[in-house]
Amino acid sequence: MTSYDIGKIDDVIHGRLRLGVMAYLVNVEVADFNELKTLLDVTQGNLSVQLRKLEDANYVTIEKGYLGRKPRTRVRMTATGRKAFAVYLEALGKLIGPQN
User: Mind listing the pLDDT tens digit for each residue in 16-29?
Assistant: First the structure.
């Protein structure tokens, strides 16, 4: 069973909320902070901490700006993040193996 290697599971992505963010962002170009907060049913503070971890790993970029007079935070997955997520999914697939 040479494919059973948990060391290839990316700890940055593997956290429940970070995994949720990455899984959502892989299918959309950009997500608003409030959209993610609602989708994942988390507090503002918790989401901020998890996004910072993804940003520190260069998996997402955070864009702060305004829509009219309202502050707006948008999150995008980087090319590095897309590659890391693909590697993560492959490693998880090998770990789980084929399901019959």
Answer: 999 999 999 999 98
Spatial contact of 21 and 60, defined as CB atoms under 8 Å apart = yes
Q: 37: how many CB neighbours lie within 10 A of its CB?
A: 17
> How distant, in Å, are the alpha carbons of 15, 48, 85, 97, 100 from that of 3?
22, 35, 18, 8, 18
Q: What are phi and psi of 4, to 5 degrees?
A: -85, 85
Total number of domains in the chain? 1
Structural domain of residue 75, as residue ranges?
10-84
Residue 51 belongs to domain with CATH number: 1.10.10.10
